[in-house]
Specification:
Radius of gyration: 14 Å
CATH architecture: 4-Layer Sandwich
Largest sheet: 5 strands, antiparallel
Shape: globular
Number of helices: 1
Strand content: over 45%
CATH topology: Glutamine Phosphoribosylpyrophosphate, subunit 1, domain 1
CATH superfamily: Aminohydrolase, N-terminal nucleophile (Ntn) domain
Number of strands: 8
Number of domains: 1
Helix content: under 10%
Order of helices and strands: HEEEEEEEE
């Protein structure tokens, strides 16, 4: 992640960078210099939940801010983890 952001800066990309990637089993969202937020919605008919990720708050729901220079990871078991580029891991939801 850091090397991709560094490469973009070295090659003239100005401004913030958010990355959204998927491995098929996990969704990765990285924040650098721009807003990045997520909200967890529970399905009233099942135990499943939906996680929406956006660069700005879209509704009146309780959106969570992804900290600057952090990676948000959502796995196929619906576990949510944020990881700082310095290596600090925090779990959520």
């Amino acid at each position: 992640m850091c090397s991709a952001a560094g490469w973009l800066e070295e090659n003239g990309f100005e401004g913030g960078k958010n990355f959204l990637m998927s491995s098929g089993r996990r969704l990765y969202a990285y924040r650098n210099g721009r807003g990045l937020f997520y909200v967890v919605r529970k399905n009233p008919l099942t135990d499943m939940k939906t996680v929406l990720v956006a660069s700005e708050v879209l509704t009146d729901e309780e959106w969570r801010d992804v900290p600057e220079d952090h990676l948000l990871v959502i796995d196929d078991n619906q576990q949510i983890v944020t990881i700082s580029v310095a290596g600090k891991v925090t779990t959520c939801c």
